[in-house]
Amino acid sequence: MTSHGNVPALPRRRPPAPAASSAAAAATLAPAAPRDRTAGLGDGLLALAVFVAGFVAYGSHAERGAFVGDAPELVAAAVTRGLAHPPGYPLFTMLAHAWTRLLAFGDPARAANLFASASGAAACAALVPVAR
């Protein structure tokens, strides 16, 4: 082994030892057992239950109109497809605009507040697989 300059030479790697038997080698190459796909259905139902519970909890306490702070500005930006103050929350504004168009009846501020409730409930439901 030689070294060039101040860099020490690395030791040579030994080749891997051969397998003890062909049965052991065949066992390592055997296909894995099929996954149980019904477990995903339980997770999905649990996530749906968490979403519904969160939406009921958040939606029942959502403001029925414009409130103080950033809420009126974000509602106005969502309804008019405008820009709120920086950072502006562009994804929230675009999705809230579509939501207020789908829920065209009633007050747009109530519809935007229900969208915020649905967003919070969706965030809670997205954490279900992480928590399991």
Explain the overall architecture.
With 132 residues, this protein is an all-alpha fold. 58% of the residues lie in helices and 0% in strands. It is elongated and about 75 Å long.
pLDDT averaged over residues: 80
SS summary, helix count: 6
* Contiguous runs where pLDDT drops below 50 for at least 5 residues: none
- Give the total of beta strands: 0
Helical residue percent? 55-70%
> For the terminal residues, how far apart are their CA atoms?
52 Å
- Summarize the biggest pleated sheet: none
Q: N-to-C SSE series?
A: HHHHHH
Q: From the alpha carbons, calculate the radius of gyration and give it in angstroms.
A: 28 Å
Shape: elongated
> Which structural class fits the helix and strand makeup?
mainly alpha
Tell me the fraction of residues in β-strands, as a range. Answer: under 5%
Summarize the structure.
With 132 residues, this protein is mostly helical. Helix 2 packs antiparallel against helix 5 and helix 3 packs across helix 5.
Q: Which descriptors would you attach to this protein?
A:
132 residues, mainly alpha, 58% helix
